[in-house]
Amino acid sequence: MPRRSAALFVLLALAIAGPAAAATPFACRVGPQADDSFLLAERFEMAVRPEAGRTEYRLLVQNPHPHPAAVLTGITLHGLVSSPAEPVLVPPGGQASVLIGWFPHDMSAGRRAPPMIEEVRAGMTIPFCEVLAPDHGHVAMPTAPRRGALRG
Question: Using CA atoms, how far apart are residues 146 and 144, in angstroms rounded to an integer?
């Protein structure tokens, strides 16, 4: 399956997955040779931050690789401010919360409520994901989760 088709399939799967679904794989390149692999979307989060005057939307990402990964998200949803165009580093074998974007509370002053997490999930993209593996030939890939193993 071509890389674009695989990425589209993964984004569609993320959009369809329910809030309780966990560990949904999404496409990610590995190392300078750009081998295909994946990271795992553990869950989407929506948090009201009154002190910042906004509602934030985040994606909890799991990295099953023995090397760090860099992830950048994007969003095209009216009223949402995209996160800064800086990849978030996900530690080897660890997790990181990746900011997708936020809804400014001054937008809701009688005009609009913050979007639901399902809308954000459907409008989100992952334009950049790379496991920062050194160039040493073939990189050991983690095993893809089995079907049915994605239930939370």
Answer: 6
